[in-house]
User: Fold this.
Amino acid sequence: MKSSELKKEIRYQIETQFRYNLYNDIKFPYLHSLGIKHLLQAFQNPEHGYIGILHLWWTSENEGTWKSQWYDTEQEGIAMSEKIMNDSPVDGHKLGKVIDRKRREVMSNQINMELKSRIEDVLEQTKNEDEPEKGVLLN
Assistant:
């Protein structure tokens, strides 16, 4: 089998498996409704090395379908990724900052709740004692 034929066969198998897993994901029917209309995934094989980057994109043709294209180089995949980001009405960098800020806020709230709970536990343990245990700071 020629190298190009082998690569084509490997790509076909990878894409089939990738689509199978994607289609069986509970989130799959809602991706395009959420604005996720492009998926890019790079693949590498220990035996054959770099296989390529698979690009799936949603189109409304035939009541909606996911089309595909393979990129041979990382540069082609990166170029497509940048094009998708630039064509998007959503600024991905700003959205990332908002998500990061919200994540830090949630984590801070969780830490504060945990500290409050620990303080309440210490106060409950020392409530009936004349003096708190040595090493317990209550200010």
